Amino acid sequence: MARISGVDLPRAKRIEVALTYIYGIGRPTANRILATTGIDRDTKTMELSDEEVARLRSAIEGVYQVEGDLRREINLNIKRLMDLGNYRGLRHRKGLPVRGQRTKTNARTRKGPRKMAVSRKKK
Fold first, then answer.
1. Fewer CB within 10 Å: N-end or C-end of the chain?
2. Is the pLDDT of residue 26 over 80?
3. Full-model pTM
4. From CA 120, how far away is CA 37, in angstroms rounded?
5. Would you say 81 and 49 are in contact if contact means Cβ atoms under 8 Å apart?
6. Going by CATH, does the domain composed of 85-111 fall within 4.10.910.10?
């Protein structure tokens, strides 16, 4: 099994699809990587030689930011926005949609499940 950037690539899938199992690599990026390394995109992962896996590994680690490094950078960017205290940072801090979506209805993914209304005790 080919292991690149800490991810075990599925053996039975085409390498074009298998590369997308790495966080930060989608289909267009996978095709770009395969073009630069000269590997056919229809090749199955189990058919790759050790030399081809090494070429893929060096191409990915040299140019692209993937997996933990990419996740860390995204989290630092969000934290920086929150520390600045600008509008986007405040929306992140409050757990509300950041990009201008409506919140009177919808936005349940960001706001979480509905809160139950608590009725007051009658006197």
1. C
2. yes
3. 0.78
4. 68
5. no
6. yes
